[in-house]
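To assess whether ligand presence alters the predicted conformation, the chain was also submitted together with iron/sulfur cluster. Input:
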Amino acid sequence: MVIDGRLRFGAPQIALYDSCPRRFFYTHVLHVGGRRTTTAFMHLHEAVRSVVEAVIASDVPVTEQELIDRTDTALAGEGLGEHGYRAEFRDLASAMLRFFLSGRAGAIAEAPVAVSINLGGEEILVEPDEVLMRPDGIRAVRRVRTGHMRSAESKDVGAAALILAVKQAYPGAVAELVHLSDGEASELSLSDRELKGRTDKLSKFLADIRAGRFPAEVSSRTCPNCPAFFICGPTPDGPLQKKVRLTLPVGESRSDWTRIAVAPPRPNLRTNRMNTEELLDYDDVGDALREGRSLRPARGYRFLLAQGAISTSCPAR
Ligand code: SF4
Protein backbone atom coordinates (compact mmCIF):
# COMPACT_ATOMS: atom_id res chain seq x y z
CA MET A 1 0.00 0.00 0.00
CA VAL A 2 1.30 3.43 -0.93
CA ILE A 3 0.20 6.07 1.56
CA ASP A 4 1.05 9.74 1.44
CA GLY A 5 0.86 11.22 4.90
CA ARG A 6 0.51 9.99 8.43
CA LEU A 7 -2.05 7.38 9.38
CA ARG A 8 -4.74 8.53 11.77
CA PHE A 9 -7.48 6.27 13.06
CA GLY A 10 -10.02 6.45 15.81
CA ALA A 11 -9.89 3.87 18.58
CA PRO A 12 -13.03 2.02 17.35
CA GLN A 13 -11.56 1.87 13.86
CA ILE A 14 -8.34 0.28 15.00
CA ALA A 15 -10.35 -2.11 17.18
CA LEU A 16 -12.00 -3.32 13.98
CA TYR A 17 -8.55 -4.16 12.59
CA ASP A 18 -8.03 -6.27 15.69
CA SER A 19 -11.20 -8.28 15.06
CA CYS A 20 -10.68 -8.74 11.30
CA PRO A 21 -8.03 -6.84 9.29
CA ARG A 22 -9.84 -7.62 6.06
CA ARG A 23 -13.05 -6.08 7.30
CA PHE A 24 -11.08 -3.01 8.33
CA PHE A 25 -9.74 -2.88 4.76
CA TYR A 26 -13.21 -2.99 3.23
CA THR A 27 -14.70 -0.56 5.72
CA HIS A 28 -12.04 2.08 6.25
CA VAL A 29 -9.80 1.81 3.20
CA LEU A 30 -12.10 0.88 0.31
CA HIS A 31 -15.33 2.10 1.93
CA VAL A 32 -17.23 -0.90 0.67
CA GLY A 33 -18.82 -3.88 2.31
CA GLY A 34 -22.51 -3.59 1.71
CA ARG A 35 -25.19 -2.15 3.87
CA ARG A 36 -26.77 -3.74 6.89
CA THR A 37 -30.50 -4.16 6.94
CA THR A 38 -31.57 -1.96 9.81
CA THR A 39 -34.02 -3.43 12.28
CA ALA A 40 -36.44 -1.70 14.62
CA PHE A 41 -34.11 -2.61 17.46
CA MET A 42 -31.21 -0.86 15.76
CA HIS A 43 -33.42 2.21 15.33
CA LEU A 44 -34.19 2.07 19.05
CA HIS A 45 -30.48 2.24 19.82
CA GLU A 46 -30.06 5.06 17.34
CA ALA A 47 -32.84 6.99 19.07
CA VAL A 48 -31.21 6.47 22.47
CA ARG A 49 -27.86 7.51 21.05
CA SER A 50 -29.31 10.74 19.70
CA VAL A 51 -30.81 11.64 23.09
CA VAL A 52 -27.52 10.85 24.84
CA GLU A 53 -25.64 13.08 22.44
CA ALA A 54 -28.15 15.89 22.94
CA VAL A 55 -27.88 15.59 26.72
CA ILE A 56 -24.08 15.68 26.59
CA ALA A 57 -24.15 18.69 24.27
CA SER A 58 -26.57 20.56 26.50
CA ASP A 59 -25.37 22.68 29.42
CA VAL A 60 -28.72 22.45 31.19
CA PRO A 61 -29.73 19.43 33.34
CA VAL A 62 -32.54 17.39 31.82
CA THR A 63 -35.75 16.90 33.80
CA GLU A 64 -37.75 13.68 33.84
CA GLN A 65 -40.46 15.18 31.64
CA GLU A 66 -37.91 16.51 29.17
CA LEU A 67 -36.35 13.08 29.02
CA ILE A 68 -39.72 11.52 28.19
CA ASP A 69 -40.40 14.13 25.55
CA ARG A 70 -36.97 13.75 23.99
CA THR A 71 -37.32 9.97 23.98
CA ASP A 72 -40.70 10.14 22.22
CA THR A 73 -39.34 12.58 19.66
CA ALA A 74 -36.25 10.48 19.02
CA LEU A 75 -38.27 7.28 18.64
CA ALA A 76 -40.65 9.00 16.23
CA GLY A 77 -37.65 10.36 14.33
CA GLU A 78 -36.41 6.80 13.90
CA GLY A 79 -39.76 5.69 12.52
CA LEU A 80 -40.88 3.91 15.69
CA GLY A 81 -43.66 6.33 16.63
CA GLU A 82 -46.37 4.05 15.25
CA HIS A 83 -44.59 0.74 15.68
CA GLY A 84 -46.53 -2.13 17.21
CA TYR A 85 -43.94 -2.45 19.97
CA ARG A 86 -43.68 1.28 20.50
CA ALA A 87 -44.56 1.02 24.21
CA GLU A 88 -41.91 -1.65 24.78
CA PHE A 89 -39.30 0.31 22.86
CA ARG A 90 -40.19 3.40 24.87
CA ASP A 91 -39.71 1.47 28.13
CA LEU A 92 -36.35 0.12 26.98
CA ALA A 93 -35.18 3.55 25.82
CA SER A 94 -36.36 5.18 29.04
CA ALA A 95 -34.53 2.63 31.19
CA MET A 96 -31.31 3.16 29.29
CA LEU A 97 -31.59 6.93 29.44
CA ARG A 98 -32.50 6.99 33.12
CA PHE A 99 -29.38 4.97 33.85
CA PHE A 100 -27.35 7.37 31.75
CA LEU A 101 -28.70 10.36 33.67
CA SER A 102 -28.20 8.65 37.03
CA GLY A 103 -24.48 8.33 36.25
CA ARG A 104 -24.28 12.08 35.82
CA ALA A 105 -26.15 12.97 39.01
CA GLY A 106 -24.15 15.41 41.10
CA ALA A 107 -21.30 15.48 38.61
CA ILE A 108 -20.04 18.48 36.69
CA ALA A 109 -19.82 17.84 32.98
CA GLU A 110 -16.75 19.11 31.18
CA ALA A 111 -16.32 19.50 27.45
CA PRO A 112 -14.66 16.32 26.15
CA VAL A 113 -11.63 16.88 23.94
CA ALA A 114 -10.11 14.51 21.43
CA VAL A 115 -6.70 13.18 22.42
CA SER A 116 -4.07 12.32 19.86
CA ILE A 117 -1.75 9.42 20.70
CA ASN A 118 1.44 9.30 18.67
CA LEU A 119 2.71 5.80 18.00
CA GLY A 120 5.84 5.64 15.92
CA GLY A 121 4.84 8.66 13.84
CA GLU A 122 1.30 7.36 13.23
CA GLU A 123 -1.70 8.52 15.19
CA ILE A 124 -4.62 7.14 17.15
CA LEU A 125 -7.28 9.71 17.92
CA VAL A 126 -9.36 9.02 21.02
CA GLU A 127 -12.63 10.91 21.36
CA PRO A 128 -14.25 10.43 24.79
CA ASP A 129 -18.03 10.79 24.79
CA GLU A 130 -18.11 12.72 28.03
CA VAL A 131 -15.92 13.89 30.88
CA LEU A 132 -17.44 14.20 34.36
CA MET A 133 -16.03 15.63 37.55
CA ARG A 134 -17.76 13.36 40.04
CA PRO A 135 -18.92 14.43 43.50
CA ASP A 136 -16.04 12.39 45.00
CA GLY A 137 -13.58 14.69 43.20
CA ILE A 138 -12.50 12.09 40.66
CA ARG A 139 -12.66 12.93 36.99
CA ALA A 140 -14.19 10.20 34.81
CA VAL A 141 -13.44 10.06 31.09
CA ARG A 142 -16.21 7.97 29.61
CA ARG A 143 -17.09 6.09 26.48
CA VAL A 144 -20.85 5.60 26.31
CA ARG A 145 -22.42 2.75 24.34
CA THR A 146 -26.10 1.90 24.11
CA GLY A 147 -25.58 -1.85 23.78
CA HIS A 148 -24.13 -4.60 25.96
CA MET A 149 -20.49 -4.94 26.82
CA ARG A 150 -18.54 -7.50 24.82
CA SER A 151 -16.54 -10.02 26.79
CA ALA A 152 -13.12 -8.69 25.79
CA GLU A 153 -14.08 -5.05 25.50
CA SER A 154 -12.49 -3.92 28.76
CA LYS A 155 -9.13 -5.38 27.74
CA ASP A 156 -8.96 -4.80 23.99
CA VAL A 157 -6.90 -2.26 22.08
CA GLY A 158 -9.78 0.24 22.12
CA ALA A 159 -9.78 0.14 25.92
CA ALA A 160 -6.00 0.50 25.93
CA ALA A 161 -6.25 3.54 23.65
CA LEU A 162 -8.72 5.17 26.04
CA ILE A 163 -6.43 4.47 29.02
CA LEU A 164 -3.43 5.90 27.14
CA ALA A 165 -5.46 9.00 26.28
CA VAL A 166 -6.49 9.47 29.91
CA LYS A 167 -2.90 9.08 31.14
CA GLN A 168 -1.74 11.60 28.56
CA ALA A 169 -4.45 14.27 28.80
CA TYR A 170 -6.28 13.67 32.09
CA PRO A 171 -3.70 12.60 34.69
CA GLY A 172 -5.36 11.19 37.77
CA ALA A 173 -8.66 10.57 35.99
CA VAL A 174 -10.32 7.19 35.50
CA ALA A 175 -11.39 5.72 32.17
CA GLU A 176 -14.88 4.24 32.07
CA LEU A 177 -16.96 2.23 29.65
CA VAL A 178 -20.67 2.85 30.06
CA HIS A 179 -23.10 0.32 28.58
CA LEU A 180 -26.66 1.47 28.79
CA SER A 181 -28.26 -1.91 27.98
CA ASP A 182 -26.33 -3.45 30.87
CA GLY A 183 -26.99 -0.51 33.16
CA GLU A 184 -23.33 -0.57 34.12
CA ALA A 185 -20.31 1.71 34.10
CA SER A 186 -17.04 -0.20 34.21
CA GLU A 187 -13.80 1.41 35.25
CA LEU A 188 -10.97 0.30 33.00
CA SER A 189 -7.85 -1.11 34.50
CA LEU A 190 -4.87 -2.67 32.77
CA SER A 191 -1.62 -3.63 34.45
CA ASP A 192 1.56 -2.00 33.15
CA ARG A 193 2.40 -5.23 31.39
CA GLU A 194 -1.02 -5.48 29.78
CA LEU A 195 -0.92 -1.85 28.70
CA LYS A 196 2.51 -2.26 27.16
CA GLY A 197 1.32 -5.35 25.31
CA ARG A 198 -1.73 -3.50 23.91
CA THR A 199 0.41 -0.48 22.97
CA ASP A 200 2.82 -2.74 21.08
CA LYS A 201 -0.18 -4.31 19.39
CA LEU A 202 -1.52 -0.91 18.31
CA SER A 203 1.88 0.00 16.87
CA LYS A 204 2.01 -3.29 15.00
CA PHE A 205 -1.48 -2.78 13.59
CA LEU A 206 -0.52 0.63 12.25
CA ALA A 207 2.65 -0.81 10.71
CA ASP A 208 0.64 -3.64 9.15
CA ILE A 209 -1.89 -1.18 7.72
CA ARG A 210 0.88 0.87 6.18
CA ALA A 211 2.42 -2.30 4.77
CA GLY A 212 -0.93 -3.32 3.26
CA ARG A 213 -1.42 -6.41 5.39
CA PHE A 214 -5.13 -7.16 5.71
CA PRO A 215 -5.52 -10.90 6.30
CA ALA A 216 -9.04 -12.28 6.62
CA GLU A 217 -10.07 -13.65 10.01
CA VAL A 218 -12.55 -16.20 8.76
CA SER A 219 -15.07 -17.29 11.34
CA SER A 220 -18.26 -19.29 10.90
CA ARG A 221 -19.69 -17.28 13.79
CA THR A 222 -18.89 -13.70 12.77
CA CYS A 223 -18.58 -13.81 8.98
CA PRO A 224 -22.30 -14.40 8.24
CA ASN A 225 -23.09 -11.16 10.11
CA CYS A 226 -20.35 -9.17 8.41
CA PRO A 227 -21.52 -6.46 5.98
CA ALA A 228 -18.66 -7.50 3.69
CA PHE A 229 -19.66 -11.17 3.61
CA PHE A 230 -20.72 -11.23 -0.04
CA ILE A 231 -17.68 -9.40 -1.37
CA CYS A 232 -15.07 -10.91 0.91
CA GLY A 233 -12.55 -12.71 -1.22
CA PRO A 234 -9.77 -11.94 -3.68
CA THR A 235 -8.68 -8.37 -4.17
CA PRO A 236 -7.05 -7.02 -7.34
CA ASP A 237 -3.30 -7.35 -7.63
CA GLY A 238 -1.18 -4.26 -7.34
CA PRO A 239 -0.38 -1.50 -4.88
CA LEU A 240 -3.18 0.71 -3.62
CA GLN A 241 -2.34 4.38 -3.45
CA LYS A 242 -4.18 6.71 -1.13
CA LYS A 243 -3.52 10.25 -0.06
CA VAL A 244 -4.30 11.16 3.49
CA ARG A 245 -5.18 14.66 4.66
CA LEU A 246 -4.50 15.17 8.33
CA THR A 247 -7.21 17.66 9.19
CA LEU A 248 -10.31 15.50 8.98
CA PRO A 249 -12.14 14.60 12.16
CA VAL A 250 -12.17 10.94 13.07
CA GLY A 251 -15.17 9.25 14.53
CA GLU A 252 -16.65 5.85 15.04
CA SER A 253 -18.51 5.83 11.77
CA ARG A 254 -16.25 8.13 9.80
CA SER A 255 -12.97 7.50 8.14
CA ASP A 256 -9.88 9.63 8.15
CA TRP A 257 -9.06 8.38 4.70
CA THR A 258 -9.54 11.48 2.66
CA ARG A 259 -10.60 11.21 -0.90
CA ILE A 260 -8.34 13.50 -2.81
CA ALA A 261 -7.95 13.41 -6.54
CA VAL A 262 -4.35 12.75 -7.41
CA ALA A 263 -2.29 13.74 -10.40
CA PRO A 264 -2.80 11.62 -13.51
CA PRO A 265 -0.77 8.46 -13.27
CA ARG A 266 2.12 7.80 -15.55
CA PRO A 267 1.03 5.73 -18.54
CA ASN A 268 1.13 2.11 -17.54
CA LEU A 269 -0.59 -0.64 -19.41
CA ARG A 270 -1.21 -2.48 -16.19
CA THR A 271 -2.81 0.47 -14.44
CA ASN A 272 -6.53 0.77 -13.86
CA ARG A 273 -7.90 4.14 -12.89
CA MET A 274 -10.99 5.22 -11.04
CA ASN A 275 -11.92 8.82 -11.60
CA THR A 276 -15.22 9.92 -13.07
CA GLU A 277 -18.38 11.60 -11.90
CA GLU A 278 -20.65 8.89 -13.24
CA LEU A 279 -20.63 6.33 -10.45
CA LEU A 280 -20.56 6.30 -6.70
CA ASP A 281 -17.14 5.16 -5.58
CA TYR A 282 -18.15 2.50 -3.06
CA ASP A 283 -20.86 1.01 -5.25
CA ASP A 284 -18.49 0.43 -8.06
CA VAL A 285 -15.68 -1.01 -5.97
CA GLY A 286 -18.15 -3.35 -4.30
CA ASP A 287 -19.67 -4.37 -7.62
CA ALA A 288 -16.25 -4.97 -9.11
CA LEU A 289 -15.25 -7.21 -6.25
CA ARG A 290 -18.54 -9.10 -6.38
CA GLU A 291 -18.45 -9.51 -10.14
CA GLY A 292 -14.76 -10.33 -10.32
CA ARG A 293 -14.13 -7.66 -12.95
CA SER A 294 -11.67 -4.82 -13.11
CA LEU A 295 -12.49 -1.53 -11.47
CA ARG A 296 -14.44 1.15 -13.28
CA PRO A 297 -14.05 4.89 -12.72
CA ALA A 298 -15.51 6.24 -9.52
CA ARG A 299 -16.33 9.66 -8.18
CA GLY A 300 -14.08 12.03 -6.31
CA TYR A 301 -11.00 9.95 -5.76
CA ARG A 302 -8.75 7.61 -7.57
CA PHE A 303 -7.14 4.35 -6.80
CA LEU A 304 -4.14 3.40 -8.76
CA LEU A 305 -3.96 -0.29 -9.13
CA ALA A 306 -0.73 -1.22 -10.77
CA GLN A 307 1.45 -4.24 -11.06
CA GLY A 308 2.63 -5.38 -7.65
CA ALA A 309 1.16 -7.01 -4.66
CA ILE A 310 -0.96 -6.11 -1.70
CA SER A 311 -2.17 -8.64 0.79
CA THR A 312 -4.79 -10.48 -1.21
CA SER A 313 -5.21 -13.84 0.44
CA CYS A 314 -8.73 -15.09 -0.01
CA PRO A 315 -10.59 -16.46 2.96
CA ALA A 316 -11.39 -20.10 2.45
CA ARG A 317 -15.13 -20.40 2.78
S1 SF4 B 1 -16.56 -11.94 5.86
FE1 SF4 B 1 -15.32 -12.63 7.61
S2 SF4 B 1 -13.20 -12.67 6.85
FE2 SF4 B 1 -14.41 -11.42 5.42
S3 SF4 B 1 -14.21 -9.33 6.13
FE3 SF4 B 1 -16.06 -10.12 7.09
S4 SF4 B 1 -15.40 -10.91 9.09
FE4 SF4 B 1 -13.55 -10.66 7.85
